[in-house]
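Methods — Computational structure assignment.
A single polypeptide chain was analysed. Its primary sequence is given first, followed by the predicted tertiary structure written as structure tokens.
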Amino acid sequence: MDDGARLSTEMVDATVRSEAWRDFTRPFFDAVPALDQEARPMHGEVGIRPLGSVLLGPTGYSAQRHTRSRRTIVAGDYEHCVIQLSVQGGSEGVFGDEPVRIGTGDVTLFDYARPFAIDVEAGRTLSMVLPRAPLETALAGRPAHGAVIRGATPMGRLIGQVMTSVDAVADQLNPDEAEGAVDAILSLAARGVSGETAVWAETAGGSRALREAIIRHIQDNLKDRDLGPAALMARFNVSRAHLYRMFENDGGVMTLIRERRLDAFYRALTRPEKQAATVAALARDWGFSSVDQLQRNFRARFGVTPTEARDEGYSLSVGDRSVSKLHARIKDFAGRFRTEGR
């Protein structure tokens, strides 16, 4: 594990631990001690590090109340999603408007673009932090904020085992293997959520199976410059209106194609073996007809130009700003905690 991406309140003096933890967590949620723990300093630890396009690793807390208000959401720039396994302990509260109880072994999905107020027991979790787009795609646009896959179910146990196994070997995986592991967890979580809610058998625009088949085809043909609504309509025998309805929650099928293509381009751009290739050459390779348009779309999605992304060597293979900022914040505060603890 990258030591720079691990922090713990035990790194600082006991007299400032609560305030140090509040400072770190303030953009994500307001943390206060549980009612029966007010006389004790809060404890928190984070050991999350990059795994392909996401962050994965353990987190831990003393008993606390975490509140993410709409004001916090608007004021901040952290809108990632989390798939979280409760390794020890649990929590209870409200996600959005839905009351939720989470126990040891349960897997929970939550979205930092939506509010929550939860009382967490002292314990440990294993968290996968990811951009919203791939989770929304896997869930076929279905909101899953606060969805719980029970650890007592076969799917809940399987997801927990896979997350734990991936965490154990994360440092040994090459980029392609890491992305495969991420896809596996994402797919299992989506299946687990669909099993919990039978109403998700069909999307607003048609069958989930057809949508998944189209997404697989898109992913396999991102380098094809002709990939678009017309090609998909012919390949899957669907109307333009039906295709639009199926991907309405994604902003339309062309938005999905553009974002998937930009993510693939980012991965190729930042790989060491591709350093000799020009941005223009990689753009052509990944089906972009205009370098100028690529530059605009790339900056809009990642907040930097392709050249800046390559030169700055972002730690994540897909530079989702919310996830990248979280990793940078962990490293920054880990350095502060070590300095203050000396």
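Note: The chain has a mean pLDDT of 85.
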